[in-house]
Amino acid sequence: MAAKAAKKSSSPGRNAPCPCGSGKKYKDCHLQQDAEHRREQMLLRQAQDLLLPKIIEAAQELPDQIPAAFARFWQEKYQVEQMAELDDTEDRGAERFLTWFAFDVRQTDGQTLVARLNATEGFASDEYERRLLEAWQAVRMRAYVVDEIIKKQAIVVHELFAGATYRLADSHAARRLGQGEVIVGHLVPADTPPDADSPTYYLAGAAAQLTADTAEKLLEFAEVHLADLRRTTPEATWDDLIDQRSEALNHFVMALPTEEPDPTIFQQAIDSAMFNLRLTTAGVADLLGRPFGPSQEATGSVEREESDAERKEGDAEHEAGSAEHEAKRENV
């Protein structure tokens, strides 16, 4: 059985026993491997810091395709001429749009810009940028819920719809985010530590940050859009929704108040989506194949209560009418 790689967090001395449990000194076991990984991690992070601005710049060089995508992302609330203002009015809105445009929007050839750049000879400056571009082709904008904050250096999140868990190595995000809060953005894989089975992720570009009370309603909002997608694609999954309509997540973000919290806004956003897509609660439930909104049992209970109230009201009216009739008869 192969010995496990030494954990980066152990930081043993050169002559200390290797944390992998092999019985060897660290210098004779995993020291060199860990040093190479740290160097690899540094080079990949440097490549990411250089690559993301290049991708955003490439997105801005497609002026003919930006207007239609801009209207999709912002639901025609803004004109493309207002792009420069959006970083202030919509919390880094221009950067969020351009990141989405690069990663999510399929161009005229059916590929996303990131996929096209991956196939463009000479765009990647070195092997590290090439490795990142290859891994980033499948990245789309998604919603993530913060599960854990690790010493203000990293956070663990799960994807709101599919539930997959990711480790986000972003100290800035770890300092400003709280447990249960929601991130709507792009998580890009960078490197895989020796002691991990999955990559470390970073945020690509800007992301929207939502309060913890938005997660459940964002899920309901997305379910409405998934139901609509299933009208034409009955077997559509969450991944299909994200691949084809990830901009819907931003539509929910747009609906939220930026100043004072207003819980009624959540339901208004859901109701508005249902109205625009011409769906009813029953229609959404039918397309999803599961209950949506108030449960049938609760609805039936309400209907029974209303029926009982109507019956009691009718009995009271009948009794009052009988008493009045009896009084009249006696007077006669």
TrEMBL record:
<dbReference type="Pfam" id="PF02810">
    <property type="entry name" value="SEC-C"/>
</dbReference>
<protein>
    <submittedName>
        <fullName>SEC-C domain-containing protein</fullName>
    </submittedName>
</protein>
<feature type="region of interest" description="Disordered">
    <location>
        <begin position="288"/>
        <end position="332"/>
    </location>
</feature>
<feature type="compositionally biased region" description="Basic and acidic residues">
    <location>
        <begin position="309"/>
        <end position="332"/>
    </location>
</feature>
<dbReference type="InterPro" id="IPR004027">
    <property type="entry name" value="SEC_C_motif"/>
</dbReference>
